Amino acid sequence: MAQYRASESKREQFRRYLEKSGVLDTLTSVLVALYEEADKPNNPLDFIKLHLGAAGPEVVDVEALRMELSDLQQKCNLLMEENKELRNRLMQYEPSPEGGAAE
């Protein structure tokens, strides 16, 4: 019987913890929004994730980031080529360190 009361006490502490941190209010509001949804979603878990902010980035954001990444990769490749070209031109006008030490 004492073990049952200890277990009940832990449950009550956990419930107070959830109330105090606002978790119960947030979950309640999301579940109410799901209940009031006229067209129930096929996947209620996705609905809950979306409303809790755990759904991840928007598709538009991901696509914009992919385009930006592609542009930056092209720019980096162009700069690498330019750097290589400029090093080659510089080597024509400056003697290599090995050649200068022998003279």
Short description:
With 103 residues, the chain is mainly alpha-helical.
Can you walk through the features of this model?
This is c-Myc-binding protein-like. Residues 62-89 form a coiled coil. The chain is mostly helical and 103 residues long. It has helices spanning 2-21, 23-36, 44-52, 59-93, 97-102. It has 2 domains: 1-56, no CATH class; 57-103. Helix 2 crosses helix 3 (44-52). The radius of gyration is 31 Å and the shape is elongated.
Keywords:
103 residues, mainly alpha, 2 domains, 5 helices, 82% helix, elongated, c-Myc-binding protein-like, coiled coil, AMY1, nucleus, transcription coactivator activity
List the helices and strands and how they pair.
Elements: H1 2-21, H2 23-36, H3 44-52, H4 59-93, H5 97-102
Helix pairs in contact: 2-3
Assembly state: single chain
- Helicity, in percent? over 70%
Quickly count the helices: 5
Order of helices and strands: HHHHH
Strand fraction band? under 5%
Total individual domains: 2
Report the strand count: 0
Sheet with the most strands, sense and barrel status: none
Radius of gyration, in angstroms, nearest whole number: 31 Å
Low-confidence stretches: none
- What's the overall average pLDDT, rounded? 86
Cα distance spanning the termini? 97 Å
The best one-word shape is elongated
Structural class, by secondary structure, is mainly alpha
